[in-house]
Amino acid sequence: MHWQRGKGIRWEYKSLKSEVMFRSKPGELAKALQPLGLNELEESPYVLKDSLWTN
Amino acid sequence: MEIKKDILWRVYLGFIGIVLLSVFILGKATIIQQAQGDHWRSMGDSMHQKIVEINADRGTIYSEDGQMLSTSLPQFDIYIDFKADGLRDKNGKIYHQYIDSFATAMSQYYGDKSAKQYRAEFDAAYKKGTRYFSLKKKITFEDYKALREFPLAKLGKNKSGIIVEQSSKRIAPFGLLANRTVGLSREYINSDGKVKKMNVGLEMSYDSLLNGQNGQRLVRFISGGAVPVEGFQVEPENGKDIYTNIDVNMQEITELALLRMMQQIEALYGTCIVMETKTGKIKAIANLGKMDNSNLYWEDDNYALRVTEPGSTFKLVTFMAALDKGTSKPNDLIDIGTAGKMQVGPRVVYDAERTRKSVVTVEEALAHSSNVGLSKMAYKGFGNNPSEFGEYIKKYHMDSRSPIDLTHIPKPRLAPFAKGEGGLMNMITMSFGYAVQVSPLQTLTLYNAVANDGKMMKPYLVNSIRNKGVVIKQMEPQVIENDICKKNTLKAVKESLEMAITEGTGKYAFKGMPFKVAGKTGTAHVADGIIKYSHRVYQASFVGYFPADAPQYSCIVVVRTKPGGGLHFGGQVAAPVFREVATKLYAMCVDRKTPKGYEGEKDNNTYFYSGNTQSFKNVLTSMNIPFVDSVQQSQWASMYANNHKPVLKTNIVKNNLMPNVKGMGLRDAIRLLEQIGLRVQARGRGKISAQSIVPGAGFNKGQVVLLELS
Residue B24: which residues within 8 A CB-CB, separation 6 or more? Predict the structure, then answer.
């Protein structure tokens, strides 16, 4: 029946979307990249300054 | 003659018997049809027609950027009826033909049992004639879809005997992320046998909005299935969606930083909240509690709301009250001695964290978190009238529940100020954060007010409520208190909180920070319920804001340590978590310069304009430009190039749906949009390049649409 088909598509969308969202969160990405030797930066950020031109 | 009479008599008897029987049958039929007719007819109807509820979908809770934090997904329980006609027909022809490949498919997909094991289970159930063989429970939609394509299952319900039961499950795609605050929505069976709901967090405080209205459908049951009756249907109204202020990335940074520290020191529980300074929006809220006898943590309670003795972070209240009253000045000197303890009024006060100086300024007393210093300030200011200190606590909103949009918020507790109840003693003890219980969220709200130049903002979680994508309620930031303290006081507080980082109790934790931080450490010795002071449980906290010269975020970290000491100072336990959160957020969100992307040269062979059809035609004909007209009578059109020739195409405008105004001039757009009941706000110049309501979306009358021109 058509109303069930509509639900099916919505369910599929939600299931896939939640899966994608979970896998693409930074923590999961970091985990996925570890085997490739890519690790999160541990150092604090620092501000780059232009030594020739300051305002 | 005797014989004839004898026969006749028997014939009559038989005849009368038959007549009586037929009269009885006719009579019974009349009674059933006439006297009991209504009863039997309605019973017949009820067996064949039934009103069935159609469940409304519960709304979804989103993060600020539209990621799903909590949503409803279906789950399926699969059973097999081994007595189904299809399986039994012709000596189980279908069963024997497909059961092997079905077992193989199950085994390959799930990998939990071998095909042989599956086959053995099926055979046993088939032999027994089980009608409700549980195949798989709680499988996802993906798995269900795959299963539908398996051999045997593909044949459909009647032939395969496969029974599918669908239910709805509330899931949090991000798992742990802000789980307690977003909340849970669970159903359980009560002792009276009824299904009840148990919600916490936002799921509870916004339950009535998230819940939709169930619909109804009249269904006629006929042999082999159910058919809905046309025209007897009330559509369900799905629940509204809730958009929170929570940022998934910030939430994750916060949660991971907290988790790492807690695992390292095996802490009992902890919380970390990030608030946007200007608005009071809660951007991240992590709550972790230790699971019994393990080093695993879960969001088992909203510790951000739990009231406990805060310790030194409460000294801000004492400091502001004494300065606001004018009994202390920022540069006044206080003698705190060298012994680490001193008699202040009625009691002896001990300094937990010692400084090398014996005489400090008022600002230094706070930066170095001297209990003696602060209690002396309190004694000087309010020794004569302790309840006046209570007035200041009230002014800083530390005596009432946080106004955050959640329910079941614990109430803060204060020891009494009355003379007969040890008021003076209580006041002195309170001045360094004991004899008072407040929640981390309240403390953060106060520090955020300092960061926000004295303006106290209401903390809030929900940003908007939407129905099918249309905003039906937009929450705006709310000011609770315009000036929390005097300007001079504010200046001194800020200096002192910065000093706490540069030379005070936060000195080691924040060494080499690339930007300025202001904040306060806190270490409270906990006695709470079954926990006694002798168990040496501490509550380490750090609360502050960054960057200190132009604050954008405030953050509080509170961690309760395991019994027996170990690392427990606010500067050792909570400050490093704050530091990790602050540096990551700084790199991510603060002071960020986004380089402008490369813009290619424009190709004058591609263009797109929209507007009034007649105006297009006037221009094109008066300039003698040939064009393809596929508009005919419509009022609105768009024009684009096809084979170097302009093509005019109808721009569809339908009632209650947002039209596409991209490429239009502002004059045309305003006329069109206001005609259908929208209010227009525009910025930029040129043609419309973006619209805040996407084409085809629904909208409410009087809603504002933002147009961007370029």
Answer: none
